[in-house]
Design brief:
single chain, alpha+beta, Peptidoglycan synthesis regulatory factor (PBP3), Domain 2, Beta-lactamase, 10 helices
C-alpha cells in the first residue's frame, strides 16, 4: 500500500483550520444550523428530537403546491374554491392566523402562496389542501408520504397548517432539509419568501419573519408559534456566495425570535468558511505502472471537493494519496485505482476516489519478460 502526501495541498493546508468545530450555546429549545453548499452541520441542539413545528410545517404545504406548479398541472393564475370549512377553521373567527378569505369565492394560486408565506394564513393552507387532495386529512397523509421521499425521516403531518395536534411533529433537521429543498428545487418561487407585506381583501399584513427587516441578506423562510411550540423560525440568509439555513424552536418571546436567529447566523458566517480543495479532473499523482506500455499513469480525482471548516482554529490539514502500486496493466481510463484521504483534527475524514486518467495497455510477452528481468537485476518496476 502506498501513501503519499499530496504536495499540491501545501498552500491549502496552511489555510485550513484543524481544530474541532466550535460549538455555541443557544437559548432555543432546539436548533440546527447548516451550510447549504456542503450540507455541513455547524450547530445542533436536539436537532433530531420531534417537536411541534407550528406554522413552520406550512413549508411542506408550500412544497406540495410548488411541485404542482413546476410540473405544469397548475399555474399561478389558476384558482381554488374557498369552502365553508376552510373559512371557518382557518378564518378570523377561529382565532388563528388568517388571510381573510371570503367563503364560497375563488382565489388565485399566487395570492394563496403570498397568503401562506406573508400572512401565515391557515385558511389559505386549507384551501390548498382541499384543492389538491379533496380534504385536509387526505392532503396531510400525502404530505407525510412525500416528506419521506424528500428525506424528512421523522416528520408526520396531521393537517396543512401546523395547528396543534399531538401527532403532528417534525424535527429541526427535517425542517432544515425541507428548507434546503425549497431553495434548490424552486428558485422561481423561492422569491416569495422574502416579501415583507401582502394586502388581500383590503387588509395589509406584514411578514412575521423578523430577519427580513435587518441588514443581513435574509430571504426566508417561515415563522411558527403555538403555546406548545413556543416561538420558532426556519430562516435562511446569504453572504459572500454562501447560504446558511437555521431552524430554531422553543424560544420564549418574539424578541428572542428576533435576536437569537440573527446571532446564530452571524456566528455561522463569522466563524466558518467554505474551502475548495480541488476540482474534478485534477491530477493528484502519477503512479508507477507494472508491465504496461507506459511507465506511469495519472491519478485523477472524480469530483469537486468543498469543505466547511472553522476560520479561527489552528490550521492544519493532511491529504494523502492511497493506492496499491505499482498498478498492473492493462488500465482503462476511469478505473478506480485508489483514493485521496483528507484528515483534519476534529473533522470527519473525507475519502475521495481517484481514477486512472489514461489507458495503459499491457506489454507483450517479450516486453513482460524484459520488465521482469529488469526488476530482478536492477530493482526497477514498470
Amino acid at each position: 500500500m502506498i501513501k503519499r502526501f499530496f504536495s499540491i495541498f501545501a498552500v491549502i493546508c496552511a489555510l485550513l483550520p484543524a481544530s474541532p468545530l466550535r460549538a455555541t450555546e443557544t437559548v432555543a429549545a432546539s436548533a440546527i444550523l447548516v451550510e447549504v453548499a456542503t450540507g455541513e452541520t455547524l450547530l445542533a441542539k436536539n436537532a433530531d428530537s420531534l417537536m411541534a413545528p407550528a406554522s413552520m410545517s406550512k413549508l411542506m404545504t408550500l412544497y406540495m403546491l410548488f411541485e404542482r406548479l413546476k410540473d405544469g398541472s397548475l399555474s399561478l393564475d389558476d384558482t381554488f374554491w374557498v369552502s365553508e370549512n376552510a373559512w371557518r377553521k382557518g378564518g378570523a373567527k377561529s382565532g388563528s392566523s388568517t388571510m381573510f378569505l371570503n367563503p364560497k369565492k375563488r382565489v388565485r394560486i399566487e395570492d394563496l402562496i403570498r397568503g401562506i408565506i406573508v400572512q401565515s394564513g391557515n385558511d389559505a393552507c386549507i384551501v390548498v389542501a382541499e384543492g389538491l387532495s379533496g380534504s385536509e386529512a387526505a392532503f396531510a397523509a400525502e404530505m407525510t408520504e412525500r416528506s419521506r421521499e424528500l428525506g424528512l425521516t421523522e416528520s408526520v403531518f396531521k393537517n396543512a397548517t401546523g395547528w396543534p395536534h399531538p401527532e403532528h411533529r417534525m424535527t429541526p433537521r427535517d425542517l432544515g432539509v425541507l428548507a434546503r429543498r425549497l431553495v434548490d428545487d424552486f428558485p422561481e418561487y423561492y422569491r416569495y419568501f422574502s416579501e415583507t407585506e401582502f394586502t388581500y381583501n383590503g387588509i395589509r399584513q406584514m411578514n412575521r419573519n423578523p430577519l427580513l427587516y435587518k441588514e443581513m441578506n435574509a430571504d426566508g423562510l417561515k415563522t411558527g408559534h403555538t403555546q406548545e411550540s413556543g416561538y420558532g423560525l426556519t430562516a435562511s440568509a446569504t453572504r459572500g456566495g454562501r447560504r446558511l439555513i437555521l431552524v430554531v424552536n422553543g424560544l420564549k418571546s418574539k424578541k428572542e425570535r428576533s435576536r437569537e436567529p440573527e446571532r446564530l447566523l452571524e456566528w455561522g458566517f463569522r466563524e466558518f468558511n467554505n474551502y475548495a480543495l480541488f476540482k474534478a479532473g485534477a491530477t493528484v499523482e502519477d503512479a508507477a505502472v507494472w508491465l504496461g506500455t507506459e511507465p506511469r499513469v495519472p491519478l485523477v480525482v472524480t469530483q469537486d471537493v468543498l469543505v466547511t471548516m472553522p476560520r479561527k482554529a489552528r490550521r492544519k490539514l493532511k491529504a494523502t494519496v492511497v493506492y496499491d502500486g505499482p498498478i498492473p496493466a492493462p488500465i482503462k481510463t476511469g478505473d478506480v485505482v485508489g483514493k485521496v484521504l483528507i484528515k483534519a483534527p476534529g473533522q470527519p475524514d473525507i475519502s475521495v476516489p481517484v481514477t486512472a486518467g489514461a489507458d495503459v495497455r499491457r506489454l507483450g510477452v517479450i516486453g513482460r519478460l524484459w520488465a521482469a528481468l529488469s526488476t530482478i537485476l536492477f530493482g526497477e518496476a514498470g
